[in-house]
Amino acid sequence: MSDPILSVRNLRVTFPSLAGRIEAVRGVSFDIGNEKVGLIGESGSGKSLTGRSIMRLLPKAAHPVADRMRFDGKEILSLPEGEMRGMRGGEIAMILQDPKFSLNPIMSVGDQIAETCRIHLKLSKREARARTLHLLEQVHINDPARVYPLFPHEVSGGMGQRIMIAMMIVARPSLIIADEPTSALDVSVRGQILRILDELRAERPTGLLFITHDLNLVRRFCDRVLIMYSGRIVEELPASRLDEAEHPYTRGLLDAIPRLDRPRDRLATLQRDPRWITEEAGR
Amino acid sequence: MIEVEDLQVFYGEGRDRFHAVRDVSFRVEKGETYGLVGESGSGKSSVLNAIAGRHSDWTGTVRLAGAEVDPRRRNPADRQKVQIVFQDPFGAIHPKHTIGGTIAEPLAINRRQNRGETVDALLRQVGLPGRFRYRYPHQISGGQRQRVSIARALALQSPILLLDEPTSALDVSVQAEILNLLQDLRRDQGLTYLMVTHDIGVVGHMCDRIGVMKDGRIVEELTKAQLVRGETAHPFTRELLSESLLG
């Protein structure tokens, strides 16, 4: 692989607690190039914290350290906050699960996108409006002029997610962190959102970190998969070969999914092995 | 066990009146699991809410365990025939009530005796330790909370359970445990399930028959075998299948 867009080595995120420090992310290393990387794990595995560390959007109490967290030649963790703020929503963008919580509820969706255009691209009011309508069209909103004045509560989940994407691509980011972007959406809408992400990546090289607990989605959509368990990456493999996964945790997850092509009377349940928490990924 | 004929469900008044469910008919035999699938807004939850008695603005016929129910007035006997388990185990349980109190509430409302012993038995049935009755919802995991919702739904020994996306908020590993629990309960207690979900994999695993809903109507009815073999006649079902079927 040529120079990765993002390179992370030995990322650790700790929280203070009454019983000493708790390490929620425990030495995670990966690179993202011009590709779609799926980061899979269950609730509490540290996958979202890993994504948020890259944006430096962690809870106040969290303390992230890494041997390396390099994006575009810069060490993210040691950047001054002012410079980081320019990077967020600029070169690095993030989409979250529920657009309802990410959008400002008392500002029309068009004005919110236009505001982003004015801040990041220094456009005039009129230019920002024209750019916004164009962006809405780019994310396949049929009637941008009708959608522009709507408020977040007036749009559907799929529409909201498209608005988030429109806002995100204002500054043409080279790294997108998508944290469960489609989990709240219907399957057909989910397909549309994924196609929009693909179209954006076809325009320019973009790394995508796709955080999800949906193995089927990753299998079909991503290039590479990282499987996280208890704050570590326990396995890494090409998405197309997910079925050949060897780690017992990944195997357990795969076996627990009900599938039409493999009907069973009972679903296998995950038998957790305490060794998974301590042993290093085999690589 | 559940017979629905010509169900029409409405929301709103006057000019805003919205016809959410149109001419829906289906029947579920005793011990069977029937799945309603479709996208958000297709009316599947409206059907569930009409049957559950949570929404009263409907016409048509709904028979539960042989007896017709009145849209506007449910007698206590009707109410005890059916219980519902919701998607979000965070929202479905009162955060300031203990687990024991939550499970005992339907028992108290219906003035049942020996409530303490019944709560113990219910916790055992859903695979939770007895000491959990003293805990609060925030002290247990999402999967455990869904077990509590199921225990509460079982409390009145209702023969029919309505399951509204019971596992879509859970991790796959936890989902498998809850689905297995639901299967065991159905077999051991002869329960009848009506399940709403958008996950075709879950439907194929759990349901004997499936009704596919679109724009308030059931556009196609399939058996499990037909679903597994992909024998669908309606283009919408095929679209649902191709979007969710992965290999």
UniProtKB/TrEMBL annotation, chain A:
Keywords: ATP-binding, Cell membrane, Membrane, Nucleotide-binding, Transport. This is Peptide/nickel transport system ATP-binding protein. Belongs to the ABC transporter superfamily. It comes from Wenxinia saemankumensis. One of its GO terms (cellular component) is plasma membrane. It is a peripheral membrane protein. It comes from the Bacteria. GO terms for molecular function: ATP binding; ATP hydrolysis activity. Residues 8-255 form the ABC transporter domain. Transmembrane segments: none annotated. GO terms for biological process: peptide transport; transmembrane transport. It is found in: Cell inner membrane. PROSITE patterns: ABC_TRANSPORTER_2.
UniProtKB/TrEMBL annotation, chain B:
Keywords: ATP-binding, Nucleotide-binding, Transport. Pfam families: ABC_tran. Residues 2-240 form the ABC transporter domain. Gene3D superfamilies: P-loop containing nucleotide triphosphate hydrolases (3.40.50.300). It comes from the Bacteria. SMART domains: AAA (SM00382). GO terms for biological process: transmembrane transport. The keyword Transcription regulation does not apply. The keyword ATP-binding applies. One of its GO terms (molecular function) is ATP binding. Belongs to the ABC transporter superfamily. This is ABC-type dipeptide/oligopeptide/nickel transport system, ATPase component. It comes from Wenxinia saemankumensis.
